[in-house]
Write a structure and sequence with these properties.
The complex is a heterodimer.
Chain A: H1 3-14, H2 17-43, H3 47-62, H4 65-75, H5 80-84, H6 88-91, H7 94-119, H8 123-131, H9 136-166, H10 178-189, H11 192-221, H12 233-239
Chain B: H1 2-25, E1 28-33, E2 36-37, E3 41-43, E4 49-50, H2 52-64, E5 67-72, H3 78-83, E6 89-90, H4 98-101, E7 105-111, E8 115-120, E9 134-136, H5 141-155, E10 159-163, H6 167-175, E11 181-185, H7 188-197, E12 202-206, H8 207-213, E13 222-230, E14 238-242, H9 247-262, H10 265-273
Parallel strand pairs in B: 1-5, 1-6, 9-13, 10-11, 10-12
Antiparallel strand pairs in B: 2-3, 3-4, 6-14, 7-14, 8-12, 8-13
Helix pairs in contact in B: 2-9, 2-10
The chains are: A mainly alpha, B alpha/beta.
Protein name (chain A): ABC transporter permease subunit
Family (chain A): Belongs to the binding-protein-dependent transport system permease family. HisMQ subfamily.
Pfam families (chain A): BPD_transp_1
């Protein structure tokens, strides 16, 4: 392996990291909002909403993200009606097409994760909150949602990580994120192994930091699962 | 030992003499083509070879007063076969690239499609000036620069689609870097789609490719405009491939191609087979 070339490749690829992070962060954030809406629809008990959410999840989970990106970018652009519509200024831009595709896809997966988290909230806790006189919305905001997030977090961290990696698919619609730049370097130098090793290491580093952050959040949200620190005797006495 | 040395020296001298003699007095050569790369070369239903390469080969041989036999041969493996002496020349739409030049020699170019622009019909770019003009980056670099300057006002701020790491992409980097926004695609079909949808305003690709692309029924809104560029890093175009040792034959081919250029044969043949002029500038 040629260390100088690896270093040079690394320096070039670093400049593409902000775009990769931006794609992942924006689509995960927007996708989470959409996913919450879908999960609520699924659990609403109102059948048109429930079936809409089921259909949505079925389609977006059942088709490859690559195909979705192609359909949104090249597919929609073929219709004159779309090109003349008010949405074209968004769909014209490859960046926003990538965000939309990633967002729609992650929302489908996350909706099921959030639904699982919501359904795992112990019924007794909800009853207790209702008994305290909280309104339905307040119960949701104060009791159900925080507990659901805590329970869904391990599964959701999987989804965030796979989204970071999924941003690499955006390179096929001319977006020069890490994989896009890597592919460009390869077609100029024909040195696939070195370049992809560096690109892979960059994704690994991003995801390492990400898993640490999620682990920290999980720790903060689960004080009830840790052994309580022993209260000093004096303090305990004062409390009495 | 002395005997062996003499023998070796003798053999070497004989070989050198033989090759020198054959190079000077070749009256019969075999030319290989592919027969499956229209319009450069193709095999007709009756099995005979035809195409731009083949017709030009006949002309060149007549001019050189050499008797030629043209044979069909698979494109990959053509270069090793040439060096192994299976035939004496290659005319198969083969571009004289640096990599191939390491192994074999090339005559001067007998056809260059060049790089051209395509846009949507009835847009402001469809009135691009210098239509069909041809500029060489090697022999007329100044002219090419002037042509680019003339295009700049029209191209200012436009989005141009090219294939990743292609010579068109390099052309944009070197001549139009601050004028246009470059977007790179994996395949040429993809930038065609984005031209049709209006995401890019103009594309740049090989004229040979664009010519077939605009004839596809789905691309009827696309048209080729403006000047073409060739030479320099854009490549010298198709040339006759020859063994490095056959310098005399190379000189003969060069002379014959110059004649074909001068008397308009290259133009006539390329108009017949391609519909535009391939004559290298």
């Amino acid at each position: 392996m040629d260390i100088a070339f690896l270093y040079e490749t690394f320096v070039t690829l670093i400049s593409a990291i902000p775009l990769t992070l931006q794609l992942a962060a924006t689509s995960v954030a927007l996708g989470a909002v959409l996913a919450l809406g879908l999960a609520v629809c699924r659990l609403s008990g109102i059948w048109p909403l429930d079936w809409f959410a089921r259909g949505y999840i079925f389609i977006f989970r059942g088709t490859p993200l690559l195909v979705q990106i192609f359909l949104i970018y090249y597919g929609l652009g073929q219709f004159r009606e779309v090109r003349r519509s008010a949405f074209w200024f968004i769909l014209r831009d490859p960046y926003w097409c990538a965000i939309i595709a990633l967002m729609l896809c992650t929302a489908a997966y996350s909706a099921e994760i959030i639904r699982g988290g919501l359904q795992a909230v112990p019924h007794g806790q909800i009853e207790a909150a209702r008994a305290c006189g909280m309104s339905r919305f307040m119960v949701f905001r104060r009791i159900i949602l925080p507990l659901a997030i805590r329970q869904a977090l391990p599964a959701y961290s999987n989804e965030i990580i796979s989204m970071v990696k999924a941003t690499s698919l955006a390179s096929i619609i001319t977006i020069m994120e890490v994989t896009g730049v890597a592919a460009k370097i390869i077609s100029e130098t024909y040195r696939a192994i070195e370049v992809f090793v560096v690109a892979g290491a960059i994704y690994l580093a991003i995801n390492f930091i990400l898993t640490r952050v999620v682990a920290l959040i999980e720790y903060r949200l689960s004080p009830h699962l840790r052994q309580a620190p022993a209260l000093p005797a004096v303090a305990a006495g004062e409390m009495r | 030992m002395t005997f062996l040395k003499t023998l070796a020296a003798g053999t070497f001298a004989a070989m050198a003499l033989a090759s020198a003699a054959s190079a000077q007095e070749k009256t019969e050569i075999t030319i290989a083509t592919e027969g499956a790369f229209p319009p450069y070369n193709l095999t007709k239903p009756d099995g005979t070879l035809d195409g731009y390469d083949v017709e030009l080969a006949h002309y060149l041989c007549d001019h050189m007063k050499i008797k030629c036999t043209i044979v069909a041969q698979a494109f990959d493996g053509m270069i090793p076969a040439l060096n192994a002496g299976k035939f004496d020349a290659i005319m198969a739409g083969m571009s004289a690239t640096e990599k191939r030049k390491e192994v074999i020699d090339f005559s001067m170019s007998y056809g260059s499609t060049g790089q051209a622009f395509a846009v949507l019909k009835d847009t402001d770019l469809s009135k691009m000036p210098l239509k069909d003009a041809l500029y060489s980056l090697s022999s007329n670099e100044e002219g090419a620069r002037k042509a680019v300057e003339e295009l700049k006002p029209l191209l200012k701020g436009k989005v141009i689609g090219v294939q990743t790491a292609s010579i068109a992409s390099r052309f944009i980097d070197e001549y139009l870097k601050d004028t246009v926004e470059k977007r790179e695609y994996k395949t040429t079909e993809q930038h065609d789609l984005d031209l049709l949808s209006g995401r890019v305003d103009v594309i740049m690709a090989s004229m040979g490719y664009l010519k077939t692309a605009v004839e596809k029924p789905t691309n009827d809104e696309m048209e080729i405009v403006g000047p073409r560029f060739q030479g320099g890093f854009l490549g010298a175009g198709s040339s006759v491939g020859l063994r490095k040792s056959d310098t005399a034959l190379k000189a003969k081919f060069d002379e014959a191609i110059t004649a074909a250029k001068a008397d308009g044969t290259l133009k006539t043949l390329s108009m017949k087979w391609f519909g535009f002029d391939l004559t290298p500038q």
